Amino acid sequence: MTRLLFLSGNIQPIIFIIFSSFSLRNGVFMLTNFNNRKKNRMHIRQLQAFILSMCLVTAGIFGLTGCSDASTNVNNTIYLETTKQTAGSDDTATLPADNESESGNPSDSTGEPENAGTSSDSTTAEASTEVTATVAPVSVNLIAVGDMLLHGGIHNSSLQPDGSYNYAHVFEHTKDRIAAADIAVANQEVILGGVELGVSSYPAFNSPQAFGDALVDTGFDVILHASNHTMDKDTVGVLNTIHFWKEKHPDTTFLGINENEDERDTIRIVEKDGIKIAMLNYTYGLNGFSLPADKPYLVNLMDDAHKTEIAQDMKNAREQADFVIVYPHWGTEYMLEATDEQKQWAQFFADNGADLIIGTHPHVVEPVEWITAANGRQTLVYYSLGNYISIQYYNYSMLGGFAEVTITKDSTGTYISDYDMDFLVTHYTAGRTEMTTYFLSDYTDELASRHAILTEPYAGQYAEGYRNVNQWYPFTVEGLWNLARQICPQFVK
């Protein structure tokens, strides 16, 4: 707040009278002599002086009577005030009030004793006021899907006569809703090392970079790369993937892998409609592979050895963004409940500033819940979204999650204003003539009757193991809805 000294001390009445007398005398003089042409120039100057003096008189009157833009301190000094907005938290701008309470007594923060040497006649009481400038709420819709677990049959279904790959059919039935989202996130479970490294499936995956093109064409904006399969093709596979995104799709945000130390320490922020969203991606491990000694930054790891580093990441994210999302690759495969370790990590992320946690890796959908951070803030956790696409043989691995979160920013802050979970079904037939994903709400018993999962798991050496599990989770539309209801009852009517 800026205060401009206008008049000071006990000379105010004297100066006020002088200005008033001068102004009135000149006004009369000019009115009676205005037609005297010989003194016209002088009169013009006098008229100008008259106008100026009247302005000063008016200011003096309002100043002495205590207008809302002036204040009088204990030394009888009148100030005309100009106020400057001070940025508050988030989008709230506060106009600072004078350092006086509503009762008119100086507040303790002024450092001035109450009524020091003044009487009520010489002090103008001034109400303390605060004006909050509000902004209209802005909302961003974010969707996220689970693992792109690209088994060989998916590549075979995409192979073209000329040797190229086209994966459009994988997203044929979901693309419209993915593209409609403000921000769409996919977990790229396997590395995009390119055909030059050899296209491969379990246990050491590698995919054509054409799948990355398909992700972008579908409408995905953010790609998660920190997984237990990130190092399946060693350092070259990771670097090929990084260069693919940087050179082919520079506007796509990829997370979890880094070309150098600076990239490792840089917080990725996705900004949409004025909302800055920091995104962090970590994996619990690398299937026994180690990071190269000269490139410890290559993949973001989450273990006890990296907790301090992760905490610093989150501190930086909170300072730079309005909202923080963590995407951990964690948990135990095929567990329909979050493990204790997942819950411990979720609490760690929440305590360090995460607003939203969306997990991957277990290949099945896991529950969604709110947890409370150490400071009382609420954090939403999707423990696992399961698979988006795969050729696995457990019935419950055919059910995937489609997370939908609305992030709103207004004068109170940035927060989750709505959230939901829709469900997906991976669909594949014998010979992979059909290889795609549907929304469960669009899936039919007729489609289910053609699914190869009804027969293929029971033709191999692990048939008994699959049968023992799948008997409890029938692969029908009703069975899939019952499974969704069992895991996430709040999202199934």
Coarse morphology: globular
Report the total helices.
12
Number of strands: 20
Low-pLDDT segments: 1-44, 55-128
State Rg.
Answer: 35 Å
User: For the residues shown, what is the average pLDDT?
Assistant: 82
Distance between the termini: 56 Å
Structural class: alpha/beta
**How large is the share of residues in beta strands?**
15-25%
Largest sheet: 8 strands, mixed
- The percentage helix is 25-40%
Task: Write up what this structure looks like.
There is one protein chain. It is built from 12 helices and 20 strands. It has helices at 12-33, 40-65, 152-158, 175-180, 210-218, 234-248, 261-265, 307-320, 340-351, 445-449, 463-470, 477-487, and strands at residues 2-7, 70-72, 78-82, 86-87, 93-95, 131-133, 138-148, 183-187, 222-224, 253-255, 268-272, 275-283, 323-329, 356-358, 368-372, 378-382, 387-389, 399-410, 413-428, 435-439. Strands 7, 8, 9, 10, 17, 18, 19 and 20 form an 8-stranded mixed β-sheet that branches. 35% of the residues are buried.
Summarize the structure.
Strands 7, 8, 9, 10, 17, 18, 19 and 20 form an eight-stranded mixed β-sheet that branches. This protein has helices spanning about 10-35, 40-65, 150-160, 175-180, 210-220, 235-250, 260-265, 305-320, 340-350, 445-450, 465-470, 475-485, and strands at about 1-5, 70, 80, 85, 95, 130-135, 140-150, 185, 220-225, 255, 270, 275-285, 325-330, 355-360, 370, 380, 385-390, 400-410, 415-430, 435-440.
